[in-house]
Each structure stands twice: as structure tokens, then as C-alpha cells.
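Design request, C-alpha cells follow.
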């Protein structure tokens, strides 16, 4: 039921319809919250399972501010409710310091960062907390929740202990690819070090989409009930995209890393130079390769990656770029091959079965693995 204080306009989401439907998603037991908004005053919280088998004697209470909301507290509230300590907790939206003091956790309000007391605000003077691990972006409330609870959430998704090395790999990767942008946008940090105005407006990122859930000034109903309905929709959107990111890294990113790592370890069996990789199964490899080269201190750097095109069943020779965000190759395929195809290319290269070499030299193809490997070995010498 709704309990709204006339003095503080505090809204207790005791029985808000924030229904978790738990279903199988590969090896996951977390699911996306589905908001059934038909009757918010009588809707009830229900769960069929939880991340912890320990029964909860009483529901914990997590506070954040009322009024206009942003992506960071919406996502922070979603994430903290996935943890054992705060599973399915009530969300209480208020700025009343006396109410906040009595809550089990407080996000994005209260002027205190103290993880021992589960206080996760980032607005106070002197706050400079960052994620660490080489990241220097100031944290938002979502970043603080992720910093302290992210490994638990990921370990539950993987069904392993929090100390497992795969948890740490994904913990860092999700921060890099998803969480850091939430922190930066909320703290007003520009993506580029430049005084030039952007060439275009981007209002399609998650923080912008969450912001659009706030009540419009033209809405006739500006009540706390309406505002909190909107906040829960924002939680659902931000949370679903967070879980999508975690699950992508669990189900796709991590297996790809393992494949690339095995390939890198075996590179000298392909060619004594160690500069040619062969992927036995194609997977996203570029970011993993750059990270593994750094971790494994590989020198000389790898120049070409070979893999089979699943559709054509032909083999590709791809030149490794100088960095993940650059088109320039470390060693492009030979200039004299570029733009040639089929028999003309095979004759010029002296290698049977050639199919093409791109005009930029970043990729080429051969009908067989042996032919593609011969192209890569010849390109190293030219």
C-alpha cells in the first residue's frame, strides 16, 4: 500500500508492483523486473526465488531522493535489490534527513559516503571516489553500488564464488563498457578533452532515456504517486540494460576471451614469428587481443588473425589495427595485392585460391586455410 507523509512527501514502496519473474536465461537466475502498472495502489511485490536461500525476517529499506530523478539512482536502486543483503528491498523516496537516518541503505542523497553504513551519496564536498583499477572517472551513486556489490551480482550470474578470476574479468569489463558512462554523464564529465562544441546531439544514450521518464511540466498529474510510478519504470529500463550487459559478458565476451587466450598461447605453432593467430572458431577478438598482448607482454605484436567465414566457408586474413579505435593497420596486406581478386590476385601473389584483398589492405581472403596462412606469411616478409 502507499503511505505518503503530508510533511515530507515520503513514499514507501511497501507493496509497489515491482514483480520479479524468475525464468531461465542460460545459467542465470536473475531476471528483468516487469512493471505491471494497472493498479499501483493495490499492487504487491512478489518473488518466486531469491539470490540467497536465507529467509528474510523483515524487508530492508533503501532510500533515495524524491523529485526529479536520474539514471544513477534508478540503476543503483535496481542493482542493490539484486544483492543478498537488500534483496527486493522497499524503495523509499524522500529528502527528509530523519527518515533517511533510519533506513538500511541510502543512495544519491544524504551527503554521506560510508559503505560500512551503506550510505552511497556522491554530491558532498570533498567526494572524489573512483572505481580504481586504472579508471579515474568520479563515481555516481550507481558506480558506488557497483563498486561494492558488482562482484556479488556477477558471481550470482556465473554461479561461482566472488573470488573466481572470471568474476573479476567481467567486473572490470562491465564497468568499462557500461557503468563508467553512467558515472561520467551524471557527474558532467565530457567524453573528449576539447572546447569545441559537439558536431551532433546525442539524446539516445541510457541516461537521456531514463531522464525522459520524469514527469513533464505539461502533465496534469504531478503527484508523488505518479512521480514514483515513473521512477520505477526508470529502474526497470536501467536495470534491464545493466543485466543485458552483464549477461553479454558472461555468455559471449568471456567465452571469446578464452578462445583468444588459447589462440595467443599457441601462436608460435602457426608461425615461428608468433605474429600470426589462427582462430579455430570465429569470435569477437579485437579488444581481447589488445588486452592479452598487454597482460602477456607479447613482443613483437601480432600482425594478422586468420579465421573461417561461416557463410562462405572461405578463410580470411585480417590485419590487426594499431589500436582498438583506429582503422590503420599494424602491417596492412601488401600494396601490390590490394584491389585484386581471384586468379589475378593468385598469380600476382603466387598463392593458389586467393579470393580478394581489400583496397585498404586491412583484410583479404582465400578459399582454404593453407592459402590464407600462405598469404599471411608472405605479407610478413613484404
Amino acid at each position: 500500500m502507499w503511505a505518503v507523509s503530508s510533511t515530507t512527501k515520503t513514499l514507501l514502496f511497501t507493496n509497489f508492483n515491482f514483480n520479479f519473474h524468475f525464468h531461465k536465461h542460460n545459467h542465470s537466475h536473475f531476471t528483468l523486473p516487469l512493471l505491471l502498472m494497472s493498479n499501483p495502489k493495490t499492487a504487491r511485490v512478489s518473488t518466486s526465488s531469491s539470490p540467497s536461500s536465507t529467509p528474510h525476517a523483515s524487508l530492508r529499506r533503501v532510500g533515495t531522493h524524491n523529485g526529479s530523478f536520474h539514471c544513477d539512482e534508478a540503476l543503483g536502486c535496481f542493482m542493490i535489490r539484486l544483492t543478498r543483503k537488500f534483496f527486493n528491498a522497499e524503495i523509499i523516496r524522500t529528502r527528509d534527513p530523519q527518515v533517511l537516518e533510519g533506513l538500511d541503505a541510502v543512495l544519491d542523497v544524504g551527503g554521506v559516503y560510508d559503505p560500512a553504513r551503506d550510505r552511497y551519496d556522491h554530491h558532498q564536498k570533498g567526494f572524489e571516489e573512483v572505481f580504481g583499477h586504472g579508471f579515474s572517472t568520479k563515481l555516481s551513486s550507481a558506480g558506488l553500488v557497483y563498486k561494492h556489490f558488482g562482484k556479488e551480482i556477477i558471481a550470482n550470474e556465473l554461479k561461482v564464488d566472488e573470488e573466481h578470476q572470471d568474476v573479476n574479468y567481467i567486473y572490470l569489463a562491465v564497468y568499462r563498457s557500461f557503468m563508467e558512462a553512467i558515472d561520467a554523464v551524471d557527474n558532467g564529465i565530457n567524453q573528449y578533452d576539447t572546447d569545441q562544441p559537439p558536431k551532433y546531439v546525442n539524446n539516445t544514450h541510457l541516461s537521456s532515456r531514463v531522464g525522459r521518464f520524469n514527469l513533464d511540466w505539461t502533465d496534469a498529474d504531478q503527484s508523488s504517486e505518479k512521480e514514483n510510478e515513473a521512477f520505477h519504470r526508470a529502474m526497470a529500463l536501467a536495470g534491464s540494460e545493466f543485466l543485458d550487459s552483464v549477461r553479454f559478458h558472461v555468455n559471449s565476451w568471456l567465452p571469446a576471451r578464452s578462445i583468444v587466450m588459447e589462440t595467443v598461447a599457441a601462436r608460435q605453432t602457426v608461425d615461428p614469428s608468433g605474429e600470426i593467430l589462427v582462430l579455430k572458431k570465429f569470435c569477437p577478438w579485437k579488444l581481447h587481443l589488445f588486452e592479452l598482448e598487454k597482460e602477456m607482454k607479447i613482443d613483437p605484436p601480432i600482425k594478422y588473425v586468420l579465421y573461417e567465414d561461416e557463410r562462405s566457408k572461405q578463410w580470411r586474413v585480417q590485419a590487426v589495427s594499431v589500436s582498438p579505435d583506429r582503422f590503420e593497420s599494424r602491417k596492412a596486406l601488401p600494396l601490390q595485392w590490394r584491389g585484386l581478386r581471384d586468379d589475378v590476385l593468385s598469380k600476382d601473389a603466387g598463392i593458389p585460391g586467393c579470393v580478394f584483398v581489400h583496397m585498404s589492405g586491412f583484410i583479404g581472403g582465400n578459399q582454404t586455410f593453407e592459402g590464407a596462412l600462405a598469404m599471411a606469411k608472405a605479407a610478413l616478409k613484404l
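Comment from the thread starter after seeing the answer: thanks! Confidence is low (pLDDT under 50) at residues 1-50, 52-57.
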